[in-house]
Write a structure and sequence with these properties.
CATH topology of the largest domain: Elongation Factor Tu (Ef-tu), domain 3
Strand order of the largest sheet: 4-11-15-13-12-16
CATH superfamily of the largest domain: Efflux pump adaptor protein, beta barrel domain
Shape: elongated
Number of domains: 4
Distance between the termini: 62 Å
Order of helices and strands: HEEEEEEEHHEEEEEEEEEEEEEEE
Helix content: 25-40%
Largest sheet: 6 strands, antiparallel, barrel
Number of strands: 22
CATH architecture of the largest domain: Beta Barrel
Structural class: alpha+beta
Strand content: 35-45%
Number of helices: 3
Radius of gyration: 44 Å
């Protein structure tokens, strides 16, 4: 009997051990997950552009001569820095220069004649006064006094006519110079020559009315830059001029610029039937401090709507649909579903107003296969 009981007990132990082994090997392998410790810090509410924006210069001029002609002088090359009013290009204008010289010569002659007439008028006026005094003392005839006064008045009129002719000469000189100026391109402001579409000897013409052609010279003022970018119509009402913004460029992946919203377009652009945007312009702070920042670069803006300091926050990438996160239980080594009340958020952090405590660990790798509430997990210590 004892032998039978011993054998039965041994059999039970073997069955239990076998069942335990089956249960153990039937358990799923723990899923390795990346964890993040809930902390406190700054959270910002931001709005970003929906499509790529562009860096633009506050002042950019596409220049062409006002008069068609053959390029006689080109004083700059691409990349040159120029000063305001500097001559950049000049078309052939020897005939107009000669006309200016002729107008100046005629003006000099007219002024000389006017001076002569006015001097003669002054002499006649003195003679008229002398004859008047002599007449008062009865030392000359009334006729002689009248003739002297008439001569003075006539020469005074001749002086005024000569002065008017000189003014006409001045206007002719101004007209000739204005016509000459139409053959030259002057820099309207200090800047950098971005592009030249003309060569000495080529024939250039102004753009016909309503038809845009390549400018002879493209001049850019790089001392003042801004970014123009489209913002979704849903987000645009929250933006107002004066708000802070951050600017990033694909050309400089490890850098960012600060800026201020300067303008919000008073209209909506309808690029596609379901894509309506509002153009927002952000001024770049101190662009001269950053070398290599050029108009034309693609850029993105992130406008700061609101910011809160020292609040409980979680990475936005860890937040699941329904405003919940997966919390790691260090005792059971399993994940728990946790809903929380969130506040402001951006692409980086989301504020947790309630439902989460500082120091709790949440899952970052929420997109990994098998990661869900209730599963057994192993923290990835490499993160």
């Amino acid at each position: 009997m004892k032998r039978f009981l011993g054998r039965g007990l041994s059999l039970l132990i073997l069955v239990g051990a076998f069942g335990g082994a089956v249960w153990y090997w039937a358990q799923p392998e723990p899923v390795m997950v990346s964890l993040h410790t809930v902390d406190r810090g700054r959270v910002e509410s931001t709005v970003a552009n929906t499509r790529v924006g562009t860096v633009k210069a506050c002042r950019r001029a596409y220049l062409a001569p006002a008069t068609a002609g053959q390029v006689a002088r080109l004083t700059v090359k691409e990349g040159d820095r120029v000063q305001a009013s500097q001559i950049l290009l000049e078309v052939w204008n020897k005939d107009l220069k000669a006309r200016v010289n002729l107008a100046n010569s005629e003006l000099a002659s007219t002024r000389a004649r006017a001076k002569e007439s006015c001097l003669m008028a002054e002499g006649a006026e003195r003679e008229a006064r002398r004859q008047t005094q002599l007449r008062q003392r009865k030392l000359t005839s009334e006729e002689a006094a009248d003739l002297a006064r008439t001569d003075a008045d006539s020469k005074r009129a001749a002086c005024e006519a000569a002065q008017a002719a000189a003014k006409v000469g001045e206007d002719r000189v101004a007209e000739a110079r204005a016509t000459l100026a139409r053959t030259r391109i002057l820099a309207p402001f200090a800047g950098v020559v971005a592009e030249i579409n003309a060569e000495v000897g080529e024939f250039v013409t102004p753009s016909p009315l309503g038809i845009q052609t390549l400018p002879a010279i493209d001049l850019v003022d790089g001392s003042c830059l801004y970014v123009s970018a489209p913002i979704d119509e849903v987000d645009a009402p929250a933006i107002s001029p004066g708000m802070e913004a951050k600017i990033t460029l694909d050309a400089f992946p490890n850098r960012s610029w600060s800026g201020i919203v300067r303008r919000i377009a008073p209209y909506v652009l309808e690029q596609e039937k379901q894509a309506r945007t509002v153009e927002v312009e952000v001024m770049i702070d101190n662009p001269r401090e950053f070398t290599g920042l050029l108009p034309g670069y693609s850029a993105d803006i992130e406008v700061l709507i609101e910011a809160r300091e020292d609040v409980v926050r979680v990475p936005t990438g860890a937040v699941l649909e329904g405003r919940r996160v997966l919390v790691y239980n260090p005792t059971s080594k399993r994940l728990m579903d946790r809903h929380f009340e969130h506040g402001i958020a951006n692409w980086e952090y989301t504020e947790a107003r309630s439902g989460l405590e500082q120091g709790e660990k949440i899952v970052l790798s929420v997109g990994k296969e098998g990661v869900e509430a209730g599963v057994l997990v192993t923290p990835d210590e490499s993160h």
